[in-house]
Amino acid sequence: MALIVQSVEYFYARVTNASGEAYGLLTQLAEAEVNLLAFSAVPFGEQHVEFTLFPERTEALSKAAAGLGWELAGPQHAVLIQGDDRLGALADIHRCLNEAGVTVYASTGVTDGNGHFGYVVYFRDEDHRNAARAIAAASIKK
Description:
Layout: E1 4-16, H1 21-31, E2 36-44, E3 48-55, H2 58-68, E4 73-84, H3 89-99, E5 106-111, E6 116-122, H4 128-141
Antiparallel strand pairs: 1-3, 1-4, 2-3, 4-6, 5-6
């Protein structure tokens, strides 16, 4: 499988750090028919959790958040990369970015245990389109 490279938007939501908050948030999004491409939750200070939400459709998340009274920060931009897992796959992606002069701000990757990986790469706003083009162009050459 060639790399699947897509520019994606993501949003932040901060909530009080209470037991079950992630479950509640994800349940409400599912009930509102919001499909997420990626999701993370990390502590923010001592009393909050910051959720990073990568919706398949930005409008669906915005509508659900408004209806639920959530404040969303964003959109920000990242690149979501999916492909066949192999030794050096992420190194090759970073080589392409380096050669294109694009600086990675942060990243998170995961494998599915069945030979595929997903990788979210965060960039400064002005760099995400150049990054997606560089990675996509390099994957076509292989």
